[in-house]
Amino acid sequence: EKVYLNGSIVPHQDAKISVFDRGFIFGDGIYEVMVQINGSFFYKEAHLNRLKDGLQKVNIKFDVDILPKEISKLLEASELTNKDCMLYIQITRGVAPRQHSYPADILPTVMMYAIPKVLPDINEIDAKVITRDDFRWSRCDIKMTSLLGNVMLNEEAMQYDCYETIMHRNGLYTEASHSNVFFVKDNVVYTHPADEYILNGITRIIVLDLCKSLNIEINESPISIDDLTTIDEAFLTGTITQIASIKQIDEHILYTGNKKGPITRKLQEALLKLK
Ligand code: PLP
């Protein structure tokens, strides 16, 4: 496995980063994940633009526009050109003696790797999820590498043999530990607005666009935990998750077997057609 580190492509064993890297010390970095399907990265511009935005929000200075060329070199070295794969990009503020404030004039640490990845068949997923209080900070719009909150919440789902943990803040569903959440109620698709309490998923944006082209009404406002029993359908979205139908939320059963709802099914079919 090859790793891109600050302009060089090396075997992963030789990719070494200082213990004083602020990504290691503070989780002071931004990351991105995208997948190549049928020879091209799915919504590459949108992913790179979100990376650019994230870096700007935390004032890490790095020119994202150099990446497409570097990504091509990495894929070639990894023998993944045109192959189905997942690309991970991480940019941390860089190496400096430990101090909280941003050090002046340090170079960011840029790391990327690509591994073969065939996306799961979404038709086979009927997910059970648990719900937990969203105890993360209030800048979830930043795709930062400090993911301990998400990791802790996801681990609980694994303990309960569930697919994901959906979170709620002040009684309103926000998102899940590594995906966005949508609900369908009376033929209207609801999802939390793209404010500072959720990551604005690229798949979330694609699904909202698909709703528009399929004439499905959307309402970007949060669903309350008190309305759970009035929900007709629910699903998760994410780059790897794609659109995963939810069959059970805590004790509440939405459907049994593989009888997922018609709107979830319609959106899954439409998403697959884009690839
Ligand atoms: N929400 C969180 C917290 C995530 O970590 C992710 C993806 O990693 C998403 C939502 C979905 O984002 P995307 O569709 O861009 O993969």
UniProtKB/TrEMBL annotation:
This is D-alanine transaminase. GO terms for cellular component: cytosol. Signal peptide: none annotated. PANTHER family: AMINO-ACID AMINOTRANSFERASE (PTHR42743), D-ALANINE AMINOTRANSFERASE (PTHR42743:SF10). One of its GO terms (molecular function) is catalytic activity. Belongs to the class-IV pyridoxal-phosphate-dependent aminotransferase family. Keywords: Pyridoxal phosphate. Pfam families: Aminotran_4. It comes from Maribacter stanieri. Its cofactor is pyridoxal 5'-phosphate. Gene3D superfamilies: 3.30.470.10, D-amino Acid Aminotransferase, subunit A, domain 2. GO terms for biological process: amino acid biosynthetic process; carboxylic acid biosynthetic process.
